[in-house]
Design a protein that fits this description.
Blueprint lengths: L2 H14 L7 E2 L5 E2 L3 E11 L7 E6 L7 E5 L3 E8 L8 E3 L20 E2 L2 E3 L5 E6 L6 H7 L3 E6 L1 H4 L11 E9 L17 E4 L2 E2 L1 E6 L2 E8 L6 E5 L5 E6 L2 E9 L2 E3 L4 E7 L8 E7 L26 E10 L26 E9 L9 E3 L11 E4 L3 E8 L5 E5 L5 E5 L14 E4 L3 E8 L5 E10 L2 H6 L2 E7 L14 E4 L6 E6 L6 E8 L4 E6 L7 E2 L6 E9 L5 E8 L1
Parallel strand pairs: 1-15, 2-5, 3-6, 5-11, 8-37, 12-16, 15-23, 24-27, 26-33
Antiparallel strand pairs: 3-4, 6-8, 6-9, 7-10, 10-11, 12-13, 13-14, 16-21, 17-20, 17-22, 18-19, 18-21, 22-23, 24-25, 27-31, 28-30, 28-32, 29-31, 32-33, 34-35, 35-38, 36-37, 36-39, 39-40
The chain binds CU-O-CU linkage and copper (II) ion.
Length: about 575
């Protein structure tokens, strides 16, 4: 690039960002509600910039995916169809569910197949999300745009006078950034931070919000950058929810830090603003402590970005007319969570951040000098146990620590007292440099000796680089892995039309997993713990020979039977 152009870009970005005249209207993702959710993952494209379209990954859309509305207590059924060219996974971040449904690196969805997990929603009302989790491909696949929000609703939240009209006074905001190359393609994955910010896939976004209290459900969907958020007039706002549920009471703040993967729901009062006026949601990222992702001073290079170590606008908010039924105050109390304490824990563990030496021959970040290995179970948790995990980081840089399966309570931090802003149920936290963070979690409900849950740094380059480990939750009563399945199974009718039925010769036998492959060995569908009452829908299959592999729940032994589709 010619120096003249480089200077023009730098000047534009320094002088121009705050006064960017041409805003784009914020995309509000569509919603899906009910108990059956059809998600179609595909390689697609979107017009981000003048000229070439950008190749993207979309879920029922050209970037990002629909917001899934779950009700606590419902059993939700997902039909995840992949029309992509590469294998992927879809992880339900923050959901408490069986590991075989979790969508971590082990629940691979090959191209052209459907994966059908389902689970009982036990999470509290809050903002969750879903995203790919294929090992060493997470950054690349998330960069394309694959992901989406999950909003859980429950009776406790519904009883409160909170803004909850989606897209009107209740707005999901997925904050991220990208780098485009000269042909408008996304650049991945040599630079950790994008030069161009976006919200819900909208560049330079603006939104009109009503003159009243509005609720923003903010997700840091970055690869590595942190956000220190506030409003351009420094007004206070209320934090009402952390990652995994409402706080007991709203917490007043003028700034909130969100690291990668973290969510916060905030309420901000626009009731005193004139209709037609505007304010900005701003990332006050200048001058952060060392180790805050995106605080590095450089504008270029692998850890540089035009947005680094500076304040930049995230979302331009225009104030519009008050709506009927406007929320005009914040409830004084929100929830009655009883949090876990250190005294509840009967098992203690430590995890220490190691390695991460920069430069040629340097090692990637790891936990306890152990890189992620697909076949290694790093920790075994006994079902029903409350555990205290201490995560130690006296090393090189900050991180965003995340664990699957549970929402936890942070009980101590060495860097500063645990703030009220992070006093609720969490599943990701900011692990600063020279910080030791202790959390307490209870591992209930889902024992599975085969499929592990992950814990990892949510910085995608760190996760992909091996800063991830896995644990299984086992039932203390144990399972015998050497016995034979108690029964056999039959497929009928065979040949089959649109439905294939399974009968088990021992009614006590339970099915752990079913995989159907065609005669070329291509996977057609994966059914974790299938409910077999209505048979399996094979109407989309071409006529021919197929193989159904059934894995027994108790022994985890597999049996294969052939069937013919007419
Ligand atoms: Cu948001 Cu292991 O993931
Ligand atoms: Cu990290």
């Amino acid at each position: 690039m010619k120096l003249k152009h480089l200077i023009a870009i730098v000047l534009f970005s320094v002088a121009g960002y705050n006064s960017f005249a041409q805003y784009n209207n914020l995309v509000i993702p569509d919603t899906i509600s009910g108990t059956t959710f059809n998600l179609n993952l595909k390689d697609t494209f979107k017009q981000f910039l003048p000229g070439n379209q950008t190749v993207t990954g979309g879920i029922n859309s050209d970037f990002w995916g629909p917001t899934l509305l779950f009700n606590k207590g419902d059993t939700v059924h997902m039909n995840v169809h992949s029309y992509m060219n590469d294998s992927t996974t879809v992880h339900w971040h923050g959901m408490h569910l069986p590991a075989v449904m979790d969508g971590g690196p082990h629940q691979i969805i090959p191209p052209g197949t459907v994966w059908q997990p389902y689970w009982l929603v036990t999470n509290q009302a809050a903002t969750y999300w879903y995203h790919p989790h294929l090992h060493q491909m997470a950054e690349q696949q998330m960069t394309t745009g694959l992901g989406g929000f999950i909003i859980v609703r429950d009776a406790e939240e519904a009883a409160l006078a909170l803004p909850r009209t989606y897209g009107v006074d209740d707005i999901p905001l997925a904050l991220t950034s990208r780098n485009f190359d000269a042909t408008n393609a996304f650049l991945c994955c040599t630079r950790a931070y994008g030069d161009t910010g976006m919200v819900n896939g909208t560049l330079h976004p603006q939104v009109t919000l009503p003159k009243q209290y509005v609720r923003l459900r903010i997700l840091n969907a970055e690869m590595e950058r942190g956000y220190n958020l506030g409003f351009s007039d420094n007004r206070s706002f209320y934090i009402i929810a952390n990652d995994g549920g409402l706080l007991n009471a709203p917490v007043s703040a003028t700034r909130i830090k969100l690291l990668v993967g973290e969510r916060a729901e905030i309420m901000v009062d626009l009731g005193g603003d004139a209709v037609g006026s505007s304010i900005d949601l701003v990332a006050y990222n200048a001058g952060q402590e060392f180790g805050f992702g995106g605080g590095e001073p450089s504008a270029t290079g692998n850890f540089g970005s035009l947005l680094n170590n500076r304040n930049f606008n995230v979302l331009h908010i225009n104030v519009g007319a008050t709506t009927a039924g406007a929320i005009t105050s914040v409830p004084a109390t929100l929830a009655s969570n009883t949090y876990l304490t250190t005294a509840d824990a009967t098992v203690s563990r430590t995890v220490t951040v190691t390695d991460g030496t920069p430069g040629p021959g340097g090692l990637p970040f790891q936990f306890d000098h152990t890189l992620y290995n697909f076949d290694t179970i790093n920790k075994t948790v006994v079902l029903g146990t409350t555990e205290k995990w201490t995560v130690i980081n006296n090393n090189v840089f900050g991180h965003a620590f995340h664990i699957h399966d549970v929402e936890f309570k942070i009980v101590s931090r060495s860097s500063h007292p645990v703030g009220a802003y992070e006093g609720g149920w969490k599943d990701v936290f900011y692990l600063q440099v020279n910080d030791t963070v202790t959390f307490v979690a209870k591992f209930n409900d889902y024992a599975d000796p085969i499929h592990p849950f992950m814990y990892h740094c949510h910085f995608a380059p760190h996760e992909d680089g091996g800063m991830m480990q896995q644990f299984v939750v086992v039932d203390a009563t144990g399972v015998g892995n050497t016995e034979k399945p108690s029964g056999d199974f039959n497929l009928y009718p065979n040949p089959a039309g649109n439905k294939l039925n399974i009968s088990l010769t021992d009614p006590a036998m339970q099915v752990y997993y079913i995989t159907i492959t065609n005669s070329q060995g291509r996977t057609m569908c994966m059914l974790p713990r299938p409910q077999l009452g209505n048979g399996i829908d094979i109407s989309a299959y071409a006529p021919g020979v197929y193989f159904l592999q059934l894995t027994d729940e108790k022994t985890k032994q597999s049996m294969i039977k052939k069937f013919v589709k007419e």
